[in-house]
Design brief:
The structure holds 2 protein chains of 2 kinds.
Chain A (H helix, E strand, L loop, with lengths): L2 H16 L5 E2 H11 L11 H10 L3 E6 L8 E6 L1 H26 L23
Antiparallel strand pairs in A: 1-3, 2-3
Helix pairs in contact in A: 1-3, 1-4
Chain B lengths: L2 H9 L5 H24 L4 H12 L2 H39 L12 H4 L4 E9 L6 E8 L3 E8 L13 E9 L12 E9 L2 E9 L5 E5 L12 E14 H4 L19 H5 L12 E5 L7 E8 L28
Helix pairs in contact in B: 1-2, 1-4, 2-3
The chains are: A mainly alpha, B alpha+beta.
Chain lengths: ~130, ~325
């Protein structure tokens, strides 16, 4: 998996998790991710919308324009679909499996590398005609 | 154009119309809200717009992927595939379809053998929907007849097989071509084809095929269910002496209409004007005897095979025979 795929998977998981309990609009999703991760997980705001579009195409998320409860321009809200909830659970399991494996690996004591034995040189005796 | 407009224009470049407007509106709401937040933090409008756009990152790569996903995967590949296929078909198909040098047996058509036949007549019989079979009856002289049945394609899945058209060809073969007939007799055949079903009935004529074959079913003649419809009649030639025929000036039209014939034949022949050519003192003319006529008739049957009961097909006495005035066939 490339860094790009890893990043994309992380962004998707973060968005799905943010929408798990309520519908949110774009900027609200960003702010929720920032708040929940205390700024540890951040990405360019412009990459949010392609990610949202990707999730809509997979039918994990549905979008709808709604009036802002505080007035002003209407906002495009995103909410999880049933498929999206299933995808969120799958990604959670995968993430935890990777995390557990990495933690177990990193907790292992350092092992000295085995010494390599010297290469064997085949012996050859040429026959001598009598 | 301010930074916000520029960013939106670049970010939505290439998106299809409705999607472009939807995305532009969403981005504008996002950017203006962010600008408002920054202004409340003390930034000027210009600075806020600049910072809001900077936080979005480069619009190019991300949105290019979206558009590439739409265009290159779906339209682009489909177009490339269609072009490649068209090119392949254009270049390769003529080569593949070019027939290899070989000898291929092909079905013999009646066009191939027509010079050897007499009285070839062909019909397309459109059979009524109520009919399940087409029967072909050949009445030869009084009481002698052939009959064949062509079962029509069965209706499938509740639909009537269509078109219910039976191709018919009638004719006779010279004696030399019909080996199954006794020497001197002529072979008769009636062939019917419907779909893949091809059936021929054949028999031996008790007289030569040299005569007048006439189509008696006018074009578009209706084909009724459970009734015989005559389509072809044949009248053999009769060789008679010149004196019997009453021909005085051989080779010229007799203005009296062959009125020299007396007796029973007079009623038939009095309506004709014919030209005869004497050969060695004899002439040929259509035999007016009803018992020597041959009639091919069709019967669109609504009854299944085995339950068919119908009168024999019409005989020459039942069909009004109008002898042609031109040369016989």
């Amino acid at each position: 998996m490339s860094d790009h795929d890893t990043k994309r998977g992380t962004v998707d998981l973060a968005i799905l998790a943010t929408l798990e309990h309520q519908a949110r609009y774009g900027l609200e999703i960003l702010e929720e991710v920032q708040r929940a991760t205390q700024g540890a997980l951040s990405f360019k705001e412009g990459s949010l919308y392609p990610a949202l579009q990707r999730l809509v195409q997979r039918k994990w998320v549905r979008a709808s324009w709604e009036d802002s409860p505080i007035g002003g321009a209407p906002r495009k809200y995103y909410e999880l679909t049933d498929d999206g909830r299933g995808a969120l659970e799958d990604k959670r399991r995968q993430w935890r499996a990777v995390r557990d494996a990495m933690e177990a690996f990193l907790a292992m004591p350092a092992v000295a590398a085995p010494r390599r034995s010297p290469a064997r040189v085949p012996t050859h005796t040429a026959g001598v005609a009598s | 154009m301010n930074p916000v407009d520029r960013y939106i224009a670049r970010a939505t470049f290439g998106l299809p119309g409705k999607k472009r407007l939807d995305t532009a509106a969403e981005l504008r709401v996002h950017l203006l809200q962010r600008v408002d937040q920054l202004q409340r933090q003390g930034f000027s409008r210009e600075e806020a717009e600049h910072l809001a756009v900077e936080r979005m990152g480069s619009p190019g790569p991300s949105w290019k992927r979206v558009t590439a996903g739409v265009f290159s995967r779906q339209v682009g590949w489909a177009a490339a595939g269609a072009l490649s296929l068209a090119l392949a078909v254009w270049l390769v198909l003529p080569i593949l379809l070019r027939p290899a040098p070989s000898v291929q047996p092909t079905p013999t058509t009646f066009d191939d053998i027509e010079p050897f036949l007499a009285g070839v007549r062909s019909f397309d019989a459109v059979v009524p929907e109520r009919a399940v079979a087409l029967r072909i009856g050949v009445q030869v002289r009084a009481g002698d007849y052939f009959e064949a049945t062509t079962v029509l394609p069965a209706a499938s899945e509740g639909r009537i097989a269509s078109p219910r058209t039976v191709r018919l060809v009638t004719g006779a073969a010279p004696a030399s071509e019909s080996t199954e007939c006794t020497t001197g007799a002529e072979g008769l055949f009636v062939r019917s084809r419907v779909g893949a079903h091809d059936q021929t009935i054949a028999g031996c004529l008790p007289f030569g095929s040299d005569g007048v074959w006439e189509v008696v079913a006018p074009e578009g003649a209706p084909l009724h269910v459970d009734a015989w419809t005559p389509v072809v009649v044949f009248q053999p030639m009769q060789t008679i002496s010149m004196s019997e025929a009453g021909v005085i000036d051989a080779g010229r039209e007799d203005p009296a209409g062959g009125g020299a014939v007396s007796g029973d034949r007079a009623s038939v022949e009095s309506t004709r004007t014919e030209t005869v050519t004497p050969v060695d003192g004899f002439v040929k003319r259509p035999n007016p005897d009803p018992d020597t006529w041959l009639v091919v008739s069709l019967y669109a049957s609504s009854a299944e095979i085995g339950t068919f009961t119908a009168p024999p097909p019409p005989s020459g006495a039942d069909v009004a025979f109008q002898a042609p005035t031109g040369p016989s066939l």
